[in-house]
Write a structure and sequence with these properties.
Blueprint: E1 14-19, H1 23-35, E2 40-46, E3 52-53, H2 58-63, E4 72-74, H3 76-81, E5 85-88, E6 92-96, E7 101-104, E8 109-111, E9 114-117, E10 121-123, E11 136-137, H4 142-152, E12 157-161, H5 165-176, E13 180-184, H6 197-209, E14 213-215, E15 220-226, E16 229-235, E17 240-242, E18 245-248, E19 252-254, H7 257-261, E20 270-272, E21 283-285, E22 290-292, H8 301-314, E23 328-330, E24 338-342, E25 351-357, E26 362-369, E27 372-379, H9 385-394, H10 409-412, H11 420-425, E28 432-434, E29 439-440, H12 441-449, H13 455-462, H14 472-483, H15 503-512, H16 518-524, H17 536-547, H18 561-565, E30 568-569, E31 575-577, H19 588-600, E32 605-608, E33 614-619, H20 624-633, E34 646-651, H21 665-676, E35 685-690, E36 704-709, E37 712-717, E38 729-734, H22 737-754, H23 761-768, H24 770-778, H25 783-798, H26 802-807
Helix pairs in contact: 1-8, 6-16, 12-13, 12-14, 15-17, 19-20, 21-22, 22-25
Bound molecules: flavin-adenine dinucleotide (FAD) and iron/sulfur cluster.
């Protein structure tokens, strides 16, 4: 279309040429016309062959909720009525600043007195093989939507690369149009720039529930071709996903080509001052193509303020200019309520106020710093989004409403109701407190009055707040109201400050509620922090790994640095590396490989450890994968000397060499180590096998010790060396090697299933009592077999050498610092004994 209106005749006016018929360009013109309609003779160039429309509504057009006609902002009549010449479908190819003119692709030359650049952004295309194939589209304008609709006509499969706002809206639209949609997202959670991990998780679950396949942490390697058309997407981990159409929605870049070529100052965007004037006083710029005070925007709200400032300046009217914007985000996917604004990265000086309602799928988080709201993330209930956004923009002091802030505007401005205790006191006796277990206020009060003086006591007596924990706050209020603040008892220690549940509660609920991911646990059990802390994340990771072997995917980010790097960090920042030597036995080949590594990587020291292994010190972090590859080549795997896992099985030479030996202690030690290596445990775990009661392998100060005797094997548990030496307790005596192995496996599994994270066997046994352990293993004649079978099942998924994976270049990203989720301090000095 090349539609030109006539000019209002008569006086000579300044010639304003606008490049870009999009949202910012036309809005700027509207603002100018509103101030001084006769000031300029206006020509607008548009690359797209159509009038000005609302780009953000392309998503509803794709989803079939709107037609193009519904989203037109200014139709042809508007251009005509305002004597604007629209040159559409003919992009400007050059700005000739020397002559004050623009030259269009068609060759048309248009002189200007003032020029306005409003070219928006270009979609970013990942430079992978096949990116230019037919069937690979972006999501920026109506042409893209039409291509997607044509593809969706035949049903089929769509892959959307990018799990940000645009990608998810494209995926939603294509899914509603009947396509089978897979979203590929590089980062671990969706919309990570707008949402924290908890909200990202809820969003992913909801999209999956609606039938989309969401692959996070997935990196595209290439677009696969068949018969000259796109046929799929191949990921760097080797997976291939079929596709009839691939939508690239991985980001945008300010469209600065024309400005750069014309010699204007450009960084990421075209540099403008507070009045949207570029480095050339005759040229203004506005919209996504500009960079103002270091920021480029990708949302519409800032454009409106920019356009007002621009129009003031262009019509010589007084105005303060544009000072930058704070933005908020909503996702236009029907049925998914999501709101995000400001900064939610958190940190030491910020306070996170979190509310979760698992039954209604609600997550709310408000970040407060210096008594001001600086960020908010809402999922499931966004009614108060604009209120939080307003508080954020105005920087209001929220300390007077701090207690009620998270409950929303209605509650916070509710006078007496702003005191949660007063609100609970006002409830009637039959008001339901605990929805999960159907417990009324009257029942909870009765329970408190009859002696339950802590949350934990209430939970175990009348079950209120024993399931999802969402009513813990109400129970706490009832305790305070009934007993008075001072008389409420603390109850047992909770897992950490993020939850009111104990370790045992969390483990029980993980199984009962079939919780299979860390964000899911946090949501369902009403964690009070958005993504946990350095205490609960490693614990949850372990509990989930133990509860769902083969199903749960280890969250490496929730591990401390030694476990992530599979080596022990030393005080000078280098690492020590311990290869596994089964039962403490080695060979010339292994010794040669170790010697070679020591020389090749200049390791300053090799040390024999207390557990009969060789520890290579002083390895630089960057050399770790190469060191592992060299040790792997000699058949050695990780010794897990850094992990909350099986460390070593120490042995003596036993009956094969020693005249006192009663059994083959080395042979048994090797078998036990082969059975148990790689298993993650609540804490480190050491085993030893001695061939006779002289006990040269010191089996009676190990977590599990075998002392061979003439008639069989004495099995000992719960020993420790180190600061607080503890000799083992005798668990039982067995006659055969097979029984010794089974009992070992069963004991380890019981410890794995029942101990708290970071609790070694010694304090665990002291806490639960040896009788409890014996009853669990021997109270039922089949129990040992059952526990041992569970352990062996889990081991199928654990015995995968982490060094080999890393040496092959996998999980390289995990060599970054642990704190991707949020900065974890180094682990607190642990109460471990050895
Ligand atoms: C599908 C989709 C959904 C979105 N949803 C939201 C949302 O929910 N909320 C939100 O805040 N933002 C949303 N956005 C972003 C929003 O649309 C943009 O921030 C806004 O359109 C930017 O306005 P602009 O004028 O700078 O750029 P545009 O609207 O892109 O306009 C630039 C125009 O310039 C034209 N042009 C470029 N080069 C030339 C040239 N050389 N000659 C002539 N013309 C040229 C382009 O063709 C284009 O028409 C969405 C964007 C898309 C694509
Ligand atoms: S523990 Fe007994 S069998 Fe083993 S080396 Fe010592 S004396 Fe020999």
């Amino acid at each position: 279309m090349n539609f030109e209106s006539g000019k209002a005749g008569g006086q000579i006016r300044e010639r304003l040429v606008v490049i870009g018929n999009g949202m910012a360009g036309c809005r700027a013109v509207e603002e100018i016309l509103a101030r001084d309609p006769g000031r300029f003779d206006i020509t607008i160039f548009g690359a797209e062959p159509r009038v000005n429309y609302n780009r953000i509504m392309l998503s509803p057009v794709l989803a079939g909720e709107k037609r193009f006609e519904d989203i037109v902002i200014n139709d042809e009549a508007w251009y005509a009525d305002n004597a604007i010449t629209l040159v559409s479908g003919d992009p400007v190819a050059q700005i000739d600043r020397a002559n004050g003119a623009v030259i269009a692709k068609s060759g048309r030359v248009e002189p200007y007195d003032r020029l306005l650049i409003a070219t928006g952004s270009d979609p970013f295309i990942i430079p992978v093989p096949g990116a230019g194939l037919p069937g690979v589209v972006t999501f920026r304008d109506l042409d893209d939507v039409e291509k997607m609709l044509a593809a969706a006509d035949g049903g089929g499969k769509a892959v959307v690369i990018g799990g940000g706002l645009l990608g998810l809206e494209a995926a939603h639209g294509l899914s509603l149009r009947g396509m089978d949609v897979t979203v590929i997202h590089l980062m671990p959670t969706l919309m990570e720039r707008q949402l924290d991990e908890a909200a990202g998780y809820l969003l992913k679950s909801e999209l999956e529930r609606r039938g989309q396949t969401i692959l996070t942490g997935a990196d595209t390697a290439e677009i696969v071709e068949r018969d000259g058309h796109v046929a799929g997407v191949k990921l760097k981990d080797g997976r291939e996903i079929e596709a009839d159409i691939v939508v690239m929605a991985v980001g945008i870049r300010p469209a600065t080509g024309l400005a750069r070529a014309a010699g204007l100052e450009v960084e990421r965007g075209i540099l403008v001052d507070d009045h949207m004037v570029t480095s050339d006083p005759a040229i203004m710029a506005v919209g996504e193509c500009v960079q103002h005070r270091g920021t480029c925007y990708g949302l519409v709200a800032p454009l409106w303020d920019m356009c007002r400032a621009l129009a003031d300046a262009a019509t010589a009217q007084p105005g303060a200019g544009y000072a930058g914007s704070v933005t908020s985000t909503k996702l236009k996917v029907s049925g998914i309520d999501l709101f995000s604004a400001g900064d939610f990265s958190g940190g030491a000086e910020c306070e996170d106020i979190v509310m979760r309602d698992a039954s209604r799928g609600i997550y709310k988080r408000v970040v407060v710093k210096d008594n001001r709201v600086i960020g908010a993330v809402l999922y499931g209930d966004t009614a108060d989004g604009s209120w939080y956004f307003d508080l954020l923009k105005k920087g209001e002091d929220v300390s007077p409403i701090r207690e009620a802030l998270i409950f929303g505007q209605a509650f916070a401005s509710g006078g007496a109701l702003a005191d949660p205790n007063a609100a609970v006191a006002a409830l009637s006796d039959d008001a339901e407190i605990c929805g999960c277990n159907g417990v009324s206020k009257g029942a909870v009060v009765k329970c408190i009055e009859s002696g339950a003086h802590s949350v934990d006591a209430v939970r175990s007596t009348c079950k209120a707040s024993a399931s999802c924990g969402s009513c813990t706050g109400l129970v706490e209020s009832l305790l305070a109201i009934t007993l008075g603040d001072g008389a409420v008892e603390a109850g047992p220690k909770t897992l950490c400050k993020c939850t009111s549940f104990t370790h045992d509660d969390v483990r029980r609920l993980i199984l009962e509620k079939e919780l299979k991911a860390i964000p899911q646990v946090m949501q369902e059990l009403h964690w009070t922090t958005p993504d946990g802390c350095a205490s609960c994340r490693p614990a949850l990771n372990y509990y989930l790994l133990c509860a769902w072997p083969g199903e749960y995917i280890d969250d490496q980010k929730s591990r401390f640095v030694n476990e992530r790097l599979h080596a022990n960090i030393q005080k000078d920042g280098t690492y020590s590396v311990v290869p596994r030597m089964w039962g403490g036995i080695t060979s010339p080949k292994e010794l040669r490989a170790i010697a070679d590594v020591v020389e090749k990587y200049d390791a300053p020291m090799v040390k024999v450890t207390g557990g009969q292994r060789l520890d290579i010190f002083g390895i630089r972090k960057e050399d770790l994968p190469a060191v592992w590859a060299d040790l792997n080549a000699a058949g050695m795997v990780s010794g897990h000397a850094y992990g909350k896992s099986l460390r070593t099985v120490k042995t003596c030479v036993g009956s094969e060499w020693c005249r006192f030996g009663t059994q083959d202690s080395t042979g048994l030690g090797v078998k036990i180590e082969r059975m148990t290596w790689g298993s993650w445990m609540p804490h480190k775990f050491k085993i030893a096998v001695s061939g006779c009661p002289r006990n040269c392998a010191e089996a009676t100060i190990k977590d599990f010790g075998v002392v061979c005797v003439d008639s069989g094997y004495e099995l000992h548990v719960g020993g420790n060396g180190g600061i607080r030496v503890r000799a083992t307790d005798l668990l039982c005596k067995v006659a055969t090697e097979e029984e010794a192995m089974d009992t070992c496996a069963a004991f380890i599994q019981l410890y794995r299933e029942q101990a708290h994270y970071l609790e070694r066997t010694a304090p665990w046994i002291e806490r639960v009592g040896l009788d409890h352990v014996k009853a669990a293993l021997f109270g039922d004649p089949k129990a040992v077999r059952r526990y041992a079978a569970r352990f062996r099942f889990s081991q199928q998924f654990m015995q995968d050498d982490p060094w080999a994976r890393r040496a092959a270049g996998k999980e390289a990203e995990l060599h970054q610092h642990l704190a991707e989720v949020r900065p974890f301090p180094a682990p607190a000095p642990q109460e471990e004994i050895a």
